[in-house]
Design goal:
With 321 residues, the protein is of the alpha/beta class. The chain has one domain: Rossmann fold. The protein has eleven helices and 13 strands. Strand 2, helix 2 and strand 3 form a beta-alpha-beta unit. It is globular, with a radius of gyration of 19 Å. The structure holds nicotinamide-adenine-dinucleotide. The site of nicotinamide-adenine-dinucleotide has 30 residues, from helix 1, strand 2, helix 5 and strand 5.
């Protein structure tokens, strides 16, 4: 019987790249997505345009809060592993609508776990986030650091997801890897995220908002490196039992906002117009991943420099706008 990997939120930025990679590896996929209005359905359909021509790909429009439809999907297809990426993403908007974020990110995650337990599906990769570290003082951020101090509802919802995952692992022996992604960028990046937003404004000759003095830093991680971390995690889950892990997927090489702005200017040979504004609530001062655990457990080795990654983003942006 065909064994399927279920990808939730598969029409989004990270999900669509994962689907492309799994199709290359000849793996049958069920993709579910509700085309959440955080950004346009049109963009998401473009993300999966190539995948749709493959026999290995099945798209089902489904909200992870719809437990009865989830039951029908698990009943219909022999799903053996799940990569759960569906979420309300974005730190700042979560401050405006915390209950909506918790509804999708927490209740939706329980629905996935409950359905997995009911249909005896034992392998889960969960998309957590570097934001769970809050304003951690110690760098680089290590998986053993205390993450009890999230500074946005989004971060709290991701931490809640990790906690639920632990509970289901303990109660029902579901093998789970929580991957904490550090600011992912590359082709198809979400339009609300800094690099994509900056390119859009730069190319339309509009000013960018620069929050703070430019010294905040992020451990930007290229999408291909994130995808190799996800597929290695799936392999590990397939080959081993009794697994519950939390693993950082970052670049271990943060750059400041000012450096990012300079790098984009060098890449595009254009100059930004800037609005300087105070720091925003919910934004952390920096992110910096310790990736030793990822290297050890899943052979993770990010290989795309910021310079190369920005060139690849520029190429995609110019072809698609
Ligand atoms: N991109 C990053 O830098 C980053 C960093 C840390 C964590 N993450 C996490 O990784 C995951 C994927 O992020 P992304 O950047 O690809 O975001 P994205 O918004 O591009 O993709 C998420 C997808 O989930 C779908 N979705 C939202 N609510 C849903 C629901 N109720 N039911 C079904 N589908 C739903 C959306 O329509 C979208 O296609 C998210 O969980 C996000 O929180 C992303």
């Amino acid at each position: 019987m065909t064994e399927y990997t279920l990808i939730t939120g598969g029409c989004g930025f990270i999900g669509s790249h994962l689907i492309d990679q799994l199709i290359k590896q000849n793996q049958p996929i069920i993709c579910i997505d509700n085309f959440d209005n955080f950004y346009s359905k049109e963009n998401k359909l473009l993300n999966i345009k190539h995948a749709e021509s493959s026999d290995l790909f099945t798209l089902i429009e489904c909200d992870i809060r719809n437990i009865s439809l989830l039951n029908t999907i698990f009943e219909t297809y022999n799903i053996t592993s799940v990569v759960h990426l569906a979420a309300k993403a974005g730190v700042r908007p979560s401050i405006e609508s915390p209950s909506e974020y918790f509804d999708v990110n927490v209740n939706g995650t329980v629905n996935i776990l409950e359905t997995m337990q009911k249909f005896d599906v034992k392998k889960l990769v969960f998309s957590s986030s570097s934001s769970v570290y809050g304003n951690n003082i110690k760098i680089p951020y290590n998986e053993n650091d205390n993450v009890d101090f999230p500074i946005s509802p989004y971060a709290a919802s991701k931490k809640a997801g990790e906690l639920l995952n632990y509970t289901f692992h303990k109660l029902y022996n579901i093998d789970i890897i929580n991957l904490r992604f550090f600011t992912v960028y590359g082709p198809r990046q979400r339009p609300d995220l800094a690099i994509h937003k900056f390119f859009k404004l730069l190319y339309s000759d509009k000013p960018i908002d620069v929050y703070g003095d430019g010294s905040t830093s992020r451990d930007y991680t290229f999408i291909d490196d994130i995808i190799s971390g996800i597929t290695s995690s799936l392999e590990k889950l397939k080959n081993e039992k009794n697994i519950y892990e939390v693993i950082n997927l970052g670049n271990n090489s943060p750059i400041t906002l000012s450096e990012l702005i300079n790098l984009i200017e060098t890449t595009t040979k254009l100059k930004f117009k800037k609005n300087n504004l105070p720091m925003q609530q919910g934004d952390v001062n920096r992110t910096y991943a310790d990736i030793k655990k990822a290297e050890k457990l899943i052979n993770y080795s990010p290989s795309t420099s910021m310079k190369d990654g920005l060139h690849l983003f520029k190429k995609w942006y110019e072809e698609n706008n």
